[in-house]
Design goal:
305 residues; Immunoglobulin-like; Jelly Rolls; 19 strands
Length: 305
């Protein structure tokens, strides 16, 4: 990894707030190429006193993220005992991240699940590895292409306690399900590798199965391990910031030849559930309509009736 050594610098912050404040760096530090220096600056407390300096090697503006929020403010939604999803649409494309932890010192970072990376406007990073019944502190931040750093206030959310009788996902690897067939995996990966089909069944919302450009020809077939009475399925489509890879409509066919759907997916921000009421061992999801590219799933679920 190539590192860039920045000249001697100091952080200047105004106590009056974020809007329009110009932050200067004049402290010694080394940062990897790709804007990590900006993220490091954003992780520092925002109530630092003004520090005098004779000159700044470079400077960049820091503004409130409220200025670029479209509609609702950034919010943690779909909170479970061990994960949550940030939902946020920005009027300016941002390389967005969420710092979070059990104290205001944070300690963890979540970014958008997007193989392209870079700046975009529709953000839904997954905060994974949470503990049940805990309070978490978090802050949303993002960098625009012009170098402006947008930073939110420090907020909190709480995870729910574990349910005594949690709903069992019959299509999970942990309950014995497996991938019986798949249209393809991105980069020719095996099912158990990154972007492989197993990642649609792993119960981890920070991973995803991606096909290799299958578009409307994409499919995944799941063997539940045993015949089961299924009442509902759950589907969470992946998407990419370049406007591809999102599934809009799909069907589900059982090993008994029953086909359900087509069902419509409203967006890629969360899982959606659909009633099928069938007895089956295998379920095959076929993409009917998408915006092409590396279609795939963040998660697939099947639940007993």
């Amino acid at each position: 990894m190539m590192n860039v050594l920045l000249p001697r610098r100091t952080i200047l912050c105004d106590r009056k707030g974020l809007g329009g404040v110009l932050t200067r760096l004049i402290q010694p530090w080394s940062a990897a190429i790709g804007g990590l220096a900006l993220l490091a600056a954003a992780s520092l407390p925002l109530s630092l006193p003004v520090v005098e300096a004779q000159a700044a090697e470079f400077e960049f503006p820091v503004r409130s993220i409220d200025e670029v929020a479209v509609g609702a403010m950034p919010e943690i939604t779909d909170i479970t005992a061990n994960s949550g999803v940030l939902v946020f649409t920005s009027s300016v494309p941002l390389a967005c991240s969420v710092v979070f932890g059990e104290t205001p010192a944070f300690g963890q970072v979540a970014v958008d699940l997007d193989m392209d990376g870079g700046a975009h406007s529709d953000h839904h990073p997954v905060l994974a590895g949470l503990e049940p019944d805990r309070e978490y502190f978090y802050r949303v931040q993002g960098t625009a292409a012009d170098g402006t750093l947008y930073v939110g206030e420090v907020l909190t959310f709480r995870t729910p306690a574990l349910a005594e009788a949690a709903e069992v996902n019959l299509a999970s690897l942990s309950t014995g399900a497996r991938v019986a067939a798949v249209s393809s995996n991105y980069g020719g990966a095996a099912n158990d590798q990154a972007w492989g089909a197993n990642q649609a069944l792993d119960g981890d919302r920070s991973t995803a199965w991606s096909s290799a450009g299958d578009g409307d020809e994409g499919f995944i077939e799941i063997d539940l391990g045993n015949e089961a009475d299924i009442g509902e399925i759950s589907v969470w489509t992946r998407s990419m910031s370049n406007g591809t890879a999102q599934i809009f409509k799909f069907t589900v066919t059982t090993d008994r030849g029953e086909t359900f759907g087509p069902f419509s997916l409203a967006d890629a921000r969360q899982p959606y559930r659909y009633a099928i009421n069938s007895t089956a061992r295998r379920l095959r999801l076929d993409v009917v309509e998408s915006n092409g590219g590396n279609v795939g799933l963040v998660e697939f679920g099947a639940f007993a009736r």
